[in-house]
Design goal:
Chain A has about 675 residues and is mainly α. Chain A has 22 helices and four strands. In chain A, strands 1-2 form a two-stranded antiparallel ribbon. A two-stranded antiparallel ribbon of chain A has the order 3-4. In chain A, helix 19 packs antiparallel against helix 21. Chain C contains seven helices and twelve strands. Chain C is elongated, with a radius of gyration of 28 Å. Classes of the chains: A mainly alpha (about 675), B mainly alpha (about 190), C alpha+beta (about 325). Chains in contact: A-B, A-C, B-C.
C-alpha cells in the first residue's frame, strides 16, 4: 500500500515558462484543425494545447473577462481581506472612543455609522465572501475538475460583490454610511426614523451581497454534486467539499429571506408601502423574523467552512486520516438543518409567547451536540497521531480554546432567562467574537498558511507566523474576555460613551489595549504575506504531504488544473492508492474547454461538458445591476427605467455564439 | 505570471475607484450632515419681501434656507416639529382645514423661505398664530423647509419619506413639485 | 454623579434572583465542559509524538477500526448531551418561576419609551390619583410592580439588571414586565435596544423606597407644581410659559401642557436630567437648558439663545419644583 505520488508527479510535471513563449510553442506543435485530447503521460502536445486553451487574454480585457475559478477565488479572498482590514480599522476607532468614560474622539452620529459599518462589513462583505472565495478556489481542485460549473455566474458574482462593498464604503466616505446597526431593525431603519439615504445604502448592499452569495452557492453546489472526479463517490469526498456543499445549500434557503426583508423595507422607504408600519396594519416584528431567519444560518455560513478547514488541516498535521469521518460529515449536515431552527433566540426580549421561546432554547442547546461530536473526533485524531507542529496547526489548536469558550457562552445566552439579562450587552459582543474568531477567523488564518503554497508556489514564513499567532491569540483574549464581565455589569451594546460613575472604565481600557495587540498581529501577517510573495521559500507541489487532490498538481496550479482528470479510489487519494487502480481518465478535448460531468452518488463518468468561454458580459451586467439599484434608491421611477440596461446586458450575455456552437457540434460523438 | 499581471491591472482600477470616491465626496456631504447645533450660530433672517417687483435685478437671499432645504436631517426634524407643534390642527397634514392647504400651489403670503419664515414668526390675519419667541430660530427654519417640501419644492433625495402613522397623503419624497402661484388678496377667500 | 447598582450577579429583586440562580448552574457546568475539552486537547498534544519533518502518513485506520476511541467519543457525546438536558431543565423551570411572581396588590406603571427618555405614568383605579413623571421610577420595597411597556417611536428596551431581565418596547405591540424590589436602593436601568443617536444616554433610575417613603413620594408627585415663592422664580415661570419651553414640556398646575418632552412638575427632586446625562445640580441644569446639544448631541431639545438673567430665572424656578 505504498503511495504512488512519484508516478502521479510524473503525470503532472510541467515546466513554467513565460506565457507568450508557450503559445508560440503550442502553435508550432499543434496544427490548426488537429484534434488533440488530454491524456496520460507527459504528452507535451496535450499539455501545451491545454495551456493555450485555458489561458486568459492578456491585459485589462483578460482581467475583466476571466472565468478561471482560481483567479476569481483569489480575487474574492484578497478583496474580502482588504475589507476585513478596513472594518478592523473602524473597530480600532471604536475601541479608542470607548477606552475612557465620557470620551469625545467621535460623536454619536459617526459612532453609529462606525459600529454599523463594522458589523455589516464583517458579516456581509468579509466573512461569507471569503469563505465562498476559498471554496471557489479550492473546490474544483479538491474534487478533481477543471473549473466550477457556472464560471460566468461566479465571475458576475465577484463584480456584484466588489461593487456592492464599494458602494457601501463610498456611502460611508460621503457621510451616508449605514447607521442603524448591522441588522437594521425597523422602525429605526424605516422611512420615518431612518433619515436620509443611509438605510437605502444598507438595503442596496444586502441585495448585492446576497445575490452574490446565491450565485456562488449554486455554482459550488453544482460542482460538488455533479463534477467530481470519477471514483470520488460521496463517501470519498473530502470534508472541506462537504462543508462547502452544506453551506451552499443553507445559503440557497436562507439568503432569500434577508433579501426579501431588505426589499420590503426599501419599498417602505421609496414607495411608501406599509409592510412595517403598525399604524396601517404592518408589523415591526416581521422584520426581525425575516432577518434572523437568515441571520442565524448566516453565522453558520461562516462557521461551517471553518470546520471544513479544521477537518482538512488536522489529518495533514497529525499524519493520519481523520477519526470519525462519517460522523463528522453527518454532524455538519445536522448542524446545517438545525441552524434553521434557532432564529428566535435573537428575539427573546420581544413579546413572543414564552413557551415558544423555550422551544428555541432547546434547539439552541441541541445544535451544540453535532459540534461536540466533531470536536471530540478531532481531539481523538490528535491523540492518536504524530504531530507535525506548524503554524496552520497552531491556529487550529487555538480554535479549541477560543471557539469552545464561545460555544459555552453560547449555551448560556441560549437560555431564555439568562439571555433576558445579557441580551444586547457586551456579554453577547464577547460571545459572538469568541465564536466568530474561534470558529472562522483562526481557522481562516490556518487555511491561509496551509494553502498559501498552493495559491502562490511559496511558503509563508514560519517564524513570523508564530509571532502573529501568539500576538493574535493573546490580544484577542485581552480584548474580548473582559467584555463578558462588562456585560454582566450592565453595559449595553452600541453606546458611544458611558459615564465614569458606571465603573466600566478599567475593563474598557484593557479591551482597547488588547485591540492594539490584535492590530499589531494583523500587520505582521500583512508583512509576512508581502515578503513571502516575493521571496518566500519555494513550495513544490505538496509541501505538507497532504492527502487531497489539489496537492497533486503544481503550485500554483496551471490554468487547466490537471493535465488529465484524476481517478479517485479512496478518501485520501494522495495517501492511499491501490497499485493496479487507474490514476486518471483521458479523452477530453485539449482544444476547447471541456470537463467531465459525473453522477451524483458514485461519480461515474456521465457526459462531457463544454465550459463557457471568458466574456466581458458578466462584468458589464454586474455594473448595470448596481446602477439600477442605486438609481432606484434615488427615485421610484429608477426602479423601472433602471431595469433596461441589465435586461440588455443579460440578453447579450446569454446570446449563443455561432463559433462556440460549431465547435461543440464537432466534438459530439455517438455514444 | 497571472498574479503579476493582475497586480498592475488591479492597481489601475484601484486608482480610478479612488478618484471616483473623491469626486462623489463633494456631493453627498451636505445632505447627510446632522446639524445638531444650528448651522449658523447667529441666525439673522433675510429680508422678507411682500412684493414680487424689485428695482433692478432680483436679489434673492437663499443661502441660509438652502442649508436647510438640502439637508435630510433638517427636513426630517421639520416633519417631526410639524406634528409636535400641532400645525396639523389647522393645516391637516398639508391638506388644509381651518388653515389653507400647504401641499397645493396657492401661496397667499408667498412661497419664498423668508416669506414662510415671516408667516410663522409673525403670524397672519385670520388665525395663523405668531410663533416668534415660542419656537427657536433653528426650528423655524426647519419648519420652513418642511412646509416647502409639502408641495414638492425641495429635492427628492433630501425630502422625508412617509411617517409611521396612518397614511393620509403621499410621502413628501414622492410629491410632484407644485409651481407656486401667489394668490391675489381677493383669492384668499376662495379656499377649497 | 450617582452610579446606582447594575450588576447582574448581585440581584436585588425576586426576578433577578431567579435569573442569578440559572447563572449559578450555567457557569460551573459550562466552565467544566470548557476546561475538560481544553485539557483533553493539551493532553493529546503532550501524548502524541512530535515530528520535526513531515513523515509518511499512517493510513492503517482506513481498514482497521478503532473501537476504544469510538467508545470514548460516544461517552463524551452522551455526557455532554445529559449536561445540556440538565441546563435545559433549569432554564425552563426558571422561566416558569419568572412567570409565577405573585402579583397581589401590584403597583401599575405604564412606561413609554421615546427617543431618548422614559415617561412613566403611575396608574390607579381612581383617575385623580394618576400622575406622570419621567426618567426616574420610585417603587416600594416588597410590592410587585407591573410595568406596561409602550414603544412610541422606535424599539427600545427596558432593563434594570438588579431587578429583572429586559423586555423590548415595540411600536404596535404592548407587553408587560413584572418585578419586585426586595431591598431598598438605587438601581440603574438603561435602554438596551439601539434606538438612535443617544441610546447611550437613555438611563432610567429605579429607586426602591421603604413603603412609607414611597407613599410620601407618590403623594408629592400627585400634587401640582409648587407655586413660585420668590420674584426670580415668578419671573422664571413667566419666561417658561412665554419662551419655547411650554411648547414641549408640561408642568401640572400651569398652562404648560406640552406632551412631547419629560414632565417637569417635580423635576427638582430627580437625581439626573437628560435621562441620566447630567447630575441635577443648579449649574448643570443651567448649562443643559442653554445648550443640551453640548451634552446630548442629537437629542430633541434645541439650544436656546437665553440671556444670562433669563436663564438664571428659569433655572431658579425649575430648581424650586420639588
Amino acid at each position: 500500500m505504498n503511495s504512488s505520488t512519484g508516478s502521479l508527479r510524473g503525470i503532472f510535471r510541467f515546466s513554467r515558462r513565460p506565457q507568450h513563449a508557450l503559445r508560440e510553442q503550442a502553435d508550432a506543435v499543434v496544427g490548426r484543425g488537429e484534434e488533440v485530447l488530454d491524456g496520460a503521460g507527459f504528452g507535451s502536445k496535450a499539455a501545451l494545447a491545454l495551456e493555450r486553451t485555458w489561458q486568459d487574454k492578456r491585459g485589462v480585457v483578460g482581467w475583466l473577462e476571466t472565468n478561471d475559478h482560481k483567479r476569481i477565488g483569489k480575487r474574492f479572498v484578497v478583496t474580502a481581506f482588504l475589507f476585513f482590514c478596513a472594518a478592523g480599522i473602524l473597530s480600532a476607532i471604536m475601541r479608542t472612543q470607548l477606552a475612557f468614560p465620557d470620551n469625545d474622539v467621535v460623536g454619536p452620529d459617526l459612532y453609529d455609522q462606525l459600529f454599523t459599518m463594522h458589523g455589516t462589513t464583517m458579516m456581509f462583505v468579509f466573512a461569507v465572501p471569503i469563505m465562498q472565495g476559498m471554496g471557489v478556489y479550492l473546490v474544483p481542485l479538491m474534487v478533481g475538475t477543471r473549473n466550477t460549473a457556472f464560471p460566468r455566474m461566479t465571475a458576475c458574482a465577484y463584480w456584484l460583490y466588489l461593487l456592492g462593498g464599494l458602494t457601501l464604503w463610498i456611502g460611508f466616505a460621503i457621510n451616508t454610511g449605514a447607521d442603524a446597526g448591522w441588522f437594521a431593525y425597523v422602525p429605526l431603519a424605516g422611512p420615518d426614523y431612518g433619515i436620509g439615504k443611509r438605510a437605502d445604502v444598507w438595503n442596496n448592499l444586502i441585495n448585492l451581497t446576497e445575490a452574490m452569495g446565491l450565485m456562488v452557492a449554486v455554482d459550488l453546489a453544482t460542482v460538488i454534486l455533479k463534477m467530481r472526479a470519477p471514483g470520488m463517490s460521496l463517501r470519498r469526498m473530502p470534508i472541506f467539499a462537504w462543508s462547502i456543499l452544506v453551506t451552499s445549500v443553507m445559503i440557497i434557503f436562507a439568503m432569500p429571506s434577508v433579501m426579501l426583508a431588505a426589499n420590503l423595507a426599501q419599498f417602505d422607504r421609496t414607495f411608501g408601502t406599509h409592510f412595517f408600519n403598525p399604524a396601517e396594519g404592518g408589523d415591526v416584528l416581521v422584520w426581525q423574523h425575516l432577518f434572523w431567519f437568515f441571520g442565524h444560518p448566516e453565522v453558520y455560513f461562516i462557521f461551517i467552512p471553518g470546520l471544513g478547514f479544521i477537518s482538512t488541516i488536522i489529518p495533514t498535521f497529525a499524519r493520519r486520516p481523520l477519526f470519525g469521518h462519517t460522523a463528522i460529515v453527518l454532524s455538519m449536515i445536522a448542524t446545517g438543518f438545525l441552524a434553521f431552527g434557532l432564529w428566535v433566540h435573537h428575539m427573546f426580549a420581544t413579546n413572543l409567547p414564552e413557551v415558544g421561546k423555550s422551544f428555541f432554547t432547546a434547539m439552541s442547546f441541541m445544535i451544540a451536540i453535532p459540534t461536540a461530536v466533531q470536536i471530540f473526533c478531532w481531539i481523538a485524531t490528535l491523540w492518536t497521531g504524530r504531530l507535525h507542529l506548524r503554524v496552520p496547526l497552531l491556529f487550529v489548536l487555538a480554535f479549541f480554546v477560543i471557539f469552545v469558550l464561545g460555544g459555552a457562552t453560547g449555551i448560556m445566552v441560549g437560555s431564555v432567562p439568562f439571555d433576558l439579562q445579557v441580551h444586547d450587552t457586551y456579554f453577547v459582543v464577547a460571545h459572538l467574537h469568541y465564536v466568530l474568531f474561534g470558529g472562522a477567523v483562526f481557522p481562516l488564518f490556518a487555511a491561509f498558511y496551509y494553502w498559501f503554497p498552493k495559491f502562490t508556489g511559496r511558503m509563508l514564513d514560519e517564524r513570523l507566523g508564530r509571532w502573529q499567532f501568539w500576538l493574535f491569540f493573546i490580544g484577542f483574549n485581552v480584548t474580548f474576555f473582559p467584555m463578558h464581565l462588562l456585560g454582566l455589569d450592565g453595559m449595553p451594546r452600541r453606546i458611544y460613551t458611558y459615564g465614569a460613575e458606571t465603573g466600566w472604565g478599567t475593563l474598557n481600557l484593557i479591551a482597547t489595549i488588547g485591540a492594539a495587540i490584535i492590530a499589531a498581529s494583523v500587520v505582521i501577517f500583512i508583512v509576512n504575506f508581502a515578503r513571502s510573495l516575493v521571496k518566500g521559500a519555494l513550495a513544490g507541489d505538496n509541501p505538507w504531504g497532504a492527502a487531497t487532490l489539489e496537492w497533486g498538481t503544481h503550485s500554483p496550479p496551471p490554468a487547466f488544473n490537471f493535465v488529465a482528470v484524476p481517478v479517485v479510489a479512496s478518501r485520501e487519494p494522495l495517501w492511499a492508492r491501490e497499485a493496479d487502480e487507474p490514476t486518471h481518465v483521458s479523452g477530453l478535448s485539449a482544444q476547447t474547454r471541456e470537463g467531465l460531468v459525473t453522477t451524483v452518488l458514485d461519480a461515474l463518468p456521465d457526459v462531457r461538458y463544454s465550459y463557457p468561454s471568458p466574456t466581458i458580459w458578466p462584468a458589464v451586467a454586474a455594473v448595470t445591476v448596481v446602477v439600477w439599484l442605486f438609481w432606484s434608491n434615488i427615485t421610484p421611477s429608477g426602479m423601472w427605467y433602471g431595469l433596461i440596461p441589465p435586461a440588455i446586458a443579460f440578453t447579450l450575455w446569454y446570446w449563443p455564439s455561432r463559433k462556440e456552437t460549431a465547435e461543440e457540434l464537432l466534438l459530439q460523438r455517438r455514444p | 505570471m497571472n498574479d503579476l499581471r493582475s497586480g498592475s491591472d488591479s492597481a489601475c482600477a484601484a486608482r480610478v475607484t479612488l478618484a471616483f470616491i473623491v469626486a462623489l465626496a463633494a456631493t453627498g456631504c451636505q445632505r447627510e450632515t446632522r446639524y445638531f447645533e444650528p448651522p449658523t450660530k447667529a441666525v439673522t433672517p433675510p429680508p422678507v419681501r411682500l412684493s414680487q417687483i424689485q428695482p433692478g435685478a432680483i436679489a434673492t437671499n437663499t443661502a441660509l434656507a438652502q442649508k436647510y432645504e438640502d439637508n435630510a436631517y433638517a427636513l426630517s426634524e421639520g416633519q417631526r416639529l410639524f406634528r409636535w407643534y400641532n400645525c396639523n390642527g389647522c393645516h391637516a397634514n398639508g391638506g388644509g382645514d381651518k388653515g389653507p392647504a400647504l401641499m397645493d400651489n396657492v401661496w397667499i403670503y408667498g412661497s419664498e423661505p423668508a416669506q414662510i419664515y415671516s408667516t410663522i414668526v409673525e403670524g397672519r390675519p385670520n388665525g395663523m398664530p405668531s410663533f416668534g419667541g415660542h419656537i427657536p430660530e433653528n426650528q423655524v427654519w426647519e419648519l420652513v423647509a418642511y412646509v416647502r417640501s409639502l408641495s414638492g419644492l425641495v429635492s427628492d433625495t433630501a425630502a422625508p419619506n412617509r411617517t409611521d402613522t396612518m397614511q393620509v397623503k403621499k410621502p413628501e419624497s414622492n410629491t410632484e413639485p407644485q409651481k407656486p402661484v401667489v394668490a391675489a388678496p381677493s383669492n384668499a377667500s376662495e379656499r377649497p | 454623579m450617582i452610579g446606582g447598582m447594575h450588576d447582574v450577579q448581585v440581584p436585588a429583586g425576586a426576578q433577578a434572583h431567579a435569573i442569578a440562580g440559572v447563572w449559578h448552574w450555567l457557569l460551573p457546568i459550562c466552565t467544566f465542559v470548557f476546561v475538560a475539552i481544553v485539557v483533553a486537547m493539551l493532553v493529546a498534544l503532550w501524548r502524541a509524538p512530535w515530528l520535526r519533518e513531515t513523515a509518511a502518513p499512517d493510513v492503517s485506520s482506513l481498514w482497521a477500526p478503532e473501537p476504544k476511541i469510538a467508545r470514548t467519543v460516544w461517552a463524551a457525546v452522551i455526557a455532554s448531551t445529559l449536561l445540556l438536558l440538565v441546563l435545559l431543565a433549569v432554564s425552563v423551570f426558571t422561566d416558569r418561576a419568572l412567570a409565577r411572581l405573585p402579583l397581589a396588590n401590584a403597583l401599575h406603571v405604564q412606561l413609554t419609551g421615546y427617543q431618548w427618555w422614559w415617561e412613566a405614568r403611575y396608574d390607579d383605579p381612581d383617575p385623580s390619583r394618576i400622575f406622570t413623571t419621567a426618567n426616574e421610577l420610585h417603587v416600594p420595597v416588597g410590592r410587585p410592580v407591573i410595568v406596561t411597556l409602550v414603544g412610541a417611536d422606535v424599539i427600545h428596551s427596558f432593563w434594570v439588571p438588579s431587578l429583572h431581565g429586559k423586555k423590548d418596547l415595540i411600536p404596535g405591540r404592548t407587553q408587560t414586565i413584572s418585578f419586585r424590589a426586595d431591598r431598598p436602593g438605587v438601581y440603574r436601568g438603561t435602554c438596551a435596544e439601539y434606538c438612535g443617536y443617544q441610546h447611550a444616554h437613555m438611563v432610567l433610575y429605579v429607586v426602591a423606597d421603604a413603603p412609607d417613603d414611597y407613599a410620601q413620594w407618590a403623594q408629592r408627585q400627585r400634587a401640582p407644581a409648587r407655586p413660585p415663592a420668590t420674584a426670580e422664580e415668578r419671573r422664571g415661570r413667566d419666561l417658561f410659559l412665554r419662551r419655547s419651553c411650554a411648547m414641549c414640556h408640561a408642568i401640572d398646575g400651569t398652562p404648560a401642557q406640552g406632551q412631547h418632552a419629560p414632565n417637569l412638575t417635580h423635576v427638582a427632586g430627580r437625581m439626573t436630567i437628560g435621562a441620566g446625562t447630567l447630575e441635577n445640580t443648579a449649574a448643570r441644569r443651567a448649562a443643559w437648558i442653554l445648550d443640551p446639544q453640548q451634552f446630548k448631541p442629537g437629542a430633541n431639545m434645541p439650544p436656546e439663545n437665553l440671556p444670562p438673567d433669563e436663564l438664571a430665572a428659569i433655572n431658579a424656578y425649575l430648581g424650586s419644583l420639588q
